[in-house]
Fold this protein.
Amino acid sequence: MLTAKAMGYDSCPMIGFEIEKVAELINLPKDYVMGPMVAIGKKVKDPWPKPGQLPLSDLVIENKF
Ligand SMILES: Cc1cc2nc3c(=O)[nH]c(=O)nc-3n(C[C@H](O)[C@H](O)[C@H](O)COP(=O)(O)O)c2cc1C
């Protein structure tokens, strides 16, 4: 995705697909593993702003449950 961006393209990763069926469609060899599917193209509009990272103090619990 970084390489696509460096080449002037935009991209979007997806894992919401039927891995086994896509593997069959493209004749994926048995010793290969499917990763995310990545759509690459030219954006038609800017992505909406993302909220950013939550503070680690909201996410990390140390030394207790
Ligand atoms: C590894 C990975 C897999 C993703 N898979 C999906 C997917 O299967 N379906 C989906 O709608 N978004 C998926 N996303 C999120 C999209 O790439 C994208 O960020 C999102 O759809 C953009 O819409 P949003 O701005 O409403 O989040 C995935 C993101 C990552 C990092």
Q: What stands out?
A: Helices lie at 2-6, 19-25, 56-59. Residues 12-16, 36 surround flavin mononucleotide (CB under 6 Å).
